[in-house]
Structure prediction request, 326 residues.
Amino acid sequence: MKQSKIIAALAVTALFCSITFSNCKKKDKSEPEDPAAVENAKTAETDGGQTGTDNREVQGENDVAVNEINEIVSNSNRLAGRNSVQGSVSGPCGLDVDSLKIKQDTILLKYNGITCNNRTRTGVIRLSWAPGTKWKVAGAKIKVDYLNYKVLRASDQRFYILNGSQMVTNLSGGTWLNLLAGQTLVISVTGTNLNVTFTDGKTAVYNVNRKATYSAPNGIVTAKLEGIGTSGSAGSLENFGTTRNGDSFTSQVVTPIIWNATCGGAVIQGDVAITNVTKNYSVSFLYGVDVNGNVQTVGQNQCPYGWKFTWPSASGGTNTHVFAYQ
Prediction:
């Protein structure tokens, strides 16, 4: 498997990890009966579901961008730390790489509006780093600035616009090429006050704190995603901030999120708890379940049935929906 194939698999898989309610089959539903309690339960279901969907989709798009950044810096002789003359740096479909400023420790990724894989992207991502940085060295850092980076889904015209900064850190050392030799690649993505504007014009503010461990056992690209952030007494947070409706929230990775290329991007394991701090309720997203909503253990070349959404019921218990992966 060539490096380009690994990168393509990573990017496509990260993209399809964006789970939406509209693309899943509803398998089970339990409705509360008390009118006042019904309203509260519906708020948890609707707001919590929307917050969870926003979180997964934006994180998925963030993953795609970070994967492309890894590809580009790995192909840059000077930045990756290879001893050869720096030439032009090419990029994936839909973007033009301006590496003319690489001597000033900057690369611009200019998204050209070409539609690729149902996504049309415009805007700029600016990469910058300290003089002398070599990406293959453990601890290397690259600053990522999103400058009106817009991702529009061609099929339904929904979009996200990102503005703000993040820091990508190579925790393990090495590049994508090292996956071929059996090495794992561990990267963290951290950043505060990332502004995300949605199709309805509302804006959320995200503080992203994630660690991704990539490997390629038997040539199958696999990633494990964990939350490394804290807010107050809450830990293991992959994200926290303000929802599109202005509520404070946290997204906690209870069990690491794992996906691989075999299942076409479906998450095969993971448990994420979304807490609306303002309205004082929590919902959960359990990935990799069977048709009954139980955790499903899968072997090589096997995939789980779907995932389960759980939210508070009017009676003080919980309601659940089980959704099938499409």
Summary: Residues 35-75 form the longest helix (41 residues). The first strand starts at residue 25 and ends at 26. Residues 3-21+60-79+86-269 form one domain.
